[in-house]
Amino acid sequence: MSARRIFARPARFAAIAPYLWMVLFFLVPFGFVLKISLSQTAIAQPPYTPVFDLAEGWQAFTAALSQLSFENFKLLISDNLYILSYLRSLVVAVTSTLILLLIGYPIAYGMARLPQRWQGVAMTLVIVPFWTSFLIRIYAWINILQHDGLLNKILLTLHIVPAPVVWLSTDSAMYLGIVYSYLPFMILPLYATLAKMDTSLLEAANDLGASPREAFWLVTFPLSLPGVGAGALLCFIPIVGEFVIPDLLAGSDSLMIGQTLWLEFFTNKDWPVASAAAVALLVLLVPPLLLYDRLQRRQLEGGR
Amino acid sequence: MAEDAEIDEHGAAARPAPQSFAADMPLLRIEGVAKTFGTFRAVDTLSLDIRAGEFFALLGPSGCGKTTLLRMLAGFETPDEGRILLDGKDIAPVLPHERPVNMMFQNYALFPHLSVYDNIAFGLKRAGMARAEIAARVAEMVALVKLEGMEKRKPDQLSGGQRQRVALARSLARRPQVLLLDEPLAALDKKLRESTQAELMELQRRLGTTFIIVTHDQEEAMTMAGRIGVMDAGRLVQVETPRHLYEAPATRWIAEFVGDINLFEGRLTAREHSRLTVTTAGAGALMVSELWPPVTKDVVNVAIRPEKVKLSRRAPAVGEGAAHTINRLDGVITDVNYLGGLTTYKVKLESGAMIRASAANTARLDVDAYLAGQRVVAWFTPDDCLVLEQ
Predict the structure, then answer these.
(1) Quick check: B97 and A200 CB within 8 A?
(2) Where are the alpha helices (DSSP H) in chain B?
(3) Which domains, ranges and CATH numbers included, belong to chain B?
(4) Can you tell me the distance from the alpha carbon of A215 to that of A223, in angstroms, rounded to the nearest whole number?
(5) pLDDT digits (tens, 9 = 90+) for B315-338
(6) pLDDT of residue A122
(7) Do the Cβ atoms of B123 and A203 come within 8 Å?
(8) Which candidate from A198, A209, A211 shows the least CB-CB separation from B174?
(9) Is B74 close to A222, i.e. CB distance below 8 A?
(10) What residues contact B330, with CB distance under 8 A and at least 6 apart?
(11) What totals of helices (H) and strands (E) does chain B contain, helices first?
(12) Does A222 touch chain B (CB under 8 A)?
């Protein structure tokens, strides 16, 4: 056997491995979810019909297949609950992404302009929160925001408010939680784009009569747009499906789609409708995902 | 050698020598300018005058401070000491974006997100020029650098030579009083560099703009510039025309930096009118014509450029009475390098010292070419060599 073939086999396996992973852990489970979304609820174990059982023969399989329908998807469209959940998810995701951008951009910009040896320190500070469990950090916020929490104590001591303010179970608390949790995901791609920007471009702009402010808006900002896009999508996509933060910090009067899904699945035991909602969410997220992929590819090509 | 400032190799105080043009004030006057980064003195009390319409080259090895000086002229660095006067006015308080000076960057610094048109128009828009006027000026610039039809392309769709032209057009578009060029040809290959040199000179003649170019390539500086300022360790060591710089370098360092040179260290042993005799270890007694200013030291270097060393098979036949005025050195050829246009030789002298010679290949078929191992006489006249005191 030639040396080339010895090395060719692991190489080929390495190329297949990610696809194998995707098929096993994403495509196959998605197939199950898709199938359940086309089934009907039943008081049984599992709580839906039909159940495919190949042991009962081909006849039974085709009979079961004919029972599948799009009823659950029709329900999603006809019931306000779901549409409102989707809308709320989109509104929360868009608003949070904008806030993240407004806070994250100046931080990333400042980091990129630090002396080289301080940039690593700043980077570590951004990443440090990941060393603590996400859930614990959200619970910490509950502690801070609750009626006799740290925030109210400080505000009362400083006589900024006369009585404790209700923070918990409000949209403000939810946005705070989301922005806090997702900030690193906004900062890192922005920082990556800003740090590799050629400073001679700014000098050239300056030399050609642009004030530092003009140079920022005419050169730095347009050139950082791929980073803005990457950061925005990296936050937007998971925020749309966010469940934990709104569940723990927001009020219960309006739900995001992740919460609705959870409710259908665990409280109402309506697996088919929950599955349909999940499939619909996925379909909604395909366009931004494709956009993100394109931006990433363009950045890779740009960074040759 | 008007700029023959006193400089020694240990970096003792140089005499700043601003020439006085009482009648016509130079366009740019640099007065005792210094810049220190940490403990590194990048530019050390440097003075220089540049006249309007000059093509001036700052030549020096990397790290000699030439780029720092250029960046101070552009306004990207502020001098720690001294003044920079443009048209008689101190430009220290003028911010870079308000100076009538433009810079062409070494890496071109083209805006990657803007088209060729928008790159060139960038400075014009900042100046608040009317749209139609901008279009006309951009068209003029595009024609000037011969980039017609490329206006809509982005920088990454251009070749290196084309990018260089866009950078040039962009820096010229605002009609600056002074154009600063930082190693403008360094990124081009040899052939393109030569044709671009000619184009830059032509452009400079036509526009009459003062060009200040920074380069480490002495050939480039010699080809293009009217005057060259040689920099070393933050100081200007000589400012001269290319010919003077080459034929009358002020110091040994300059002689070796600009072109190739043979050096023989020796002691001044006789002076007869303006004819000096220097006794060297490597080449025996050499006769040298003394130039102005007179030689004051005893231990000196005799310097001779390789192309001024002639080779012959036997002692040259010289005119009556002139025989004693030729330096004749016997030796053996050890190395022959054929370079196309010329051939270089290394000759080992009887003392063991080496002397380099070069000769133009004026005939296609040279049956008499010297070969390694051949005995030859290397000779040169007292006028062809010079004495370097430091």
Answers:
(1) no
(2) 66-74, 116-126, 131-144, 160-172, 190-207, 218-224, 242-247, 252-257
(3) 5-100+176-247 (3.40.50.300), 261-388 (2.40.50.100)
(4) 11
(5) 666 554 455 678 889 999 999 999
(6) 93
(7) no
(8) A209
(9) no
(10) B349, B350, B375, B376, B377, B378
(11) 8, 20
(12) yes
Digit-by-digit pLDDT tens for chain A (304 residues) are 444 555 566 677 778 888 888 888 889 999 999 999 998 888 888 888 888 777 777 888 888 888 888 888 888 888 888 899 999 999 999 999 999 999 999 999 999 999 988 999 999 999 998 899 999 999 999 999 998 889 999 999 998 888 888 888 899 999 999 999 999 999 999 999 999 999 999 999 999 999 999 999 999 999 999 899 989 999 999 999 899 999 999 887 888 998 999 988 888 888 999 999 999 988 888 888 888 888 777 766 654 3
Residue B210 CA to residue B298 CA, distance in Å, equals 43
Q: Is A209 on the interface with B (CB under 8 A)?
A: yes
User: Cβ–Cβ of A223/B109 closer than 8 Å?
Assistant: no
Q: Do B96 and A207 touch (CB under 8 A)?
A: yes
Angstroms from B93 CA to nearest CA on chain A? 15
Q: What is the DSSP letter of B105?
A: -
Rounded to the nearest angstrom, the minimum Cα separation between A197 and chain B is: 11
Crossing angle of helices B160-172 and B190-207, rounded to 10°: 20
ipTM over 0.85: no
- Identify the pLDDT of residue B317: 60
**% of chain B at pLDDT higher than 90:** 53
Closest CA to A134 of A263, A231, A238: A238
CA–CA separation, B252 and B235 (whole Å): 15
What residues of B are in contact with residue A207 (Cβ under 8 Å)?
Answer: 74-76, 96-97, 102-103, 171
Is the C-alpha dihedral spanning B140, B144, B148, B152 positive or negative? negative
Distance separating the N- and C-terminal Cα atoms of chain A = 37
Q: Which residues of B touch A201 (CB under 8 A)?
A: 109, 111
DSSP, collapsed to helix, strand or coil, labels residue A230 as: helix
| Cβ within 8 Å, pair A208-B170 | yes
DSSP letter assigned to residue A250? S
Tens-place pLDDT, residues B24-80: 678 999 999 999 998 898 999 899 999 999 999 999 998 899 999 999 999 999 999
Residue linked to tokens 């308000």: B98
Q: Per the CB < 8 Å rule, is A203 touching B109? A: yes
Q: Any alpha helices (H) in A27-170, and if so which ranges?
A: 28-37, 57-66, 71-78, 80-113, 116-127, 134-145, 150-157
Question: By CA distance, what is A221's nearest residue in B?
Answer: B113
Taking the Cβ of residue A200 and every Cβ of chain B, the question of whether any pair is shorter than 8 Å is answered with yes
- Residue A235's SS3 state is helix
Chain B residues with CB-CB distance to A227 below 8 A: none
Identify residues of B whose CB sits under 8 angstroms from chain A CBs: 74-76, 95-98, 102-103, 105, 107, 109-113, 122-123, 126-127, 170-171, 174
Q: Which chain A residue's Cα is nearest to B175?
A: A208
Chains A & B: contacts with CB separation below 8 Å? 56
Amino acid at A250: A
State the pLDDT confidence band at B241, using cuts at 50, 70 and 90: very high
**Over the stretch B256-296, which tens digit does the pLDDT of each residue have?**
999 899 999 988 888 888 888 888 888 888 888 887 777 77
Q: Which residues of A274-283 are buried (b: 16+ CB within 10 A; e: fewer)?
A: bbbbbbbbee
Which of A208, A224, A225, A228 is best to mutate for the B interface (most B CBs within 10 A)? A208
Closest CA of chain A from B227, distance in Å:
25
* Nearest-neighbour CA in chain A from B40: distance (Å): 19
